[in-house]
Design a protein that fits this description.
By secondary structure, this protein is of the alpha/beta class. Helices cover about 60% and strands about 10% of the residues. Strands 2-3-1-4-5 form a five-stranded parallel beta sheet, sandwiched between helices. α1 packs across α10. The longest helix is centred in the middle third of the chain and has 28 residues. The radius of gyration is 17 Å and the shape is globular. The relative contact order is 0.21.
């Protein structure tokens, strides 16, 4: 396991829950000039790169003909199978951590403010970051948005929500909160408010 201790001196973590609007907030922060270290993009890249290992862990049915990962099918497996979820996390999280810390080290040396966009920031408990932004949406709205966005049943949506730390707990642990209970215009306003705090 990759265990180097890193202090993200100029980094601010950005997290939330599934369907709370974190990706939209991240895009707004990028438009405002912040460098974004995107854990999801890094994870997707690592998954495709490590397709042989994924095939060995879960079976060749999760590998497409072009050697990319069938993320939809793999997602169904890990959301409904705790052991499979742990197996994937034990494999991929140390690889994601190493890549993120390598990028963060470069920004820290440049003394440049950056955003660590990490959906499972609290769940992994791996990143030593002093300041954390949580994109917050009440659970009932979160559930409605997830069902609509992914076109899934209420039961499947609840299973995905329950696989993460509850959004109210994340809100409690936040340094800054971007409230995304309203529309996109409100999300922009909230994100700009927090961005101003970071740059003052």
């Amino acid at each position: 396991m990759y265990s180097r201790v890193v202090k993200f001196k100029y980094g601010v973590a950005l997290t939330g829950g599934i369907a709370t609007g974190k990706s939209s907030a991240s895009a707004i922060l990028k438009e405002l000039g912040f460098e974004i270290v995107d854990a999801d993009k890094i994870a997707h890249s690592i998954l495709d790169r490590e397709f042989i290992a994924i095939g060995k862990l879960f079976g060749k049915k999760y590998i497409k003909d072009d050697n990319s990962i069938n993320r939809k099918e793999l997602g169904k497996l890990i959301f409904n199978n705790k052991r499979a979820k742990e197996k994937l996390e034990n494999f991929i999280h140390p690889l994601i951590y190493k890549e993120i810390t390598d990028i963060a080290d470069r920004f820290d040396r440049l003394k440049k403010r950056y955003i660590l966009d990490i959906p499972l920031f609290f769940e992994t408990n791996r990143y030593r970051v002093d300041r954390v932004i949580v994109v917050y949406t009440p659970r009932d709205i979160q559930l409605q948005r997830l069902i609509k966005r992914d076109k899934i049943s209420k039961e499947e949506a609840l299973a995905r929500l329950n696989a993460q730390i509850d959004i109210e707990e994340k809100k409690r642990l936040a340094t800054y909160i971007i409230d995304n209970s309203g529309d996109f215009k409100n999300l922009e306003k909230e994100t700009k408010r927090v961005a101003k705090i970071l740059t003052d």
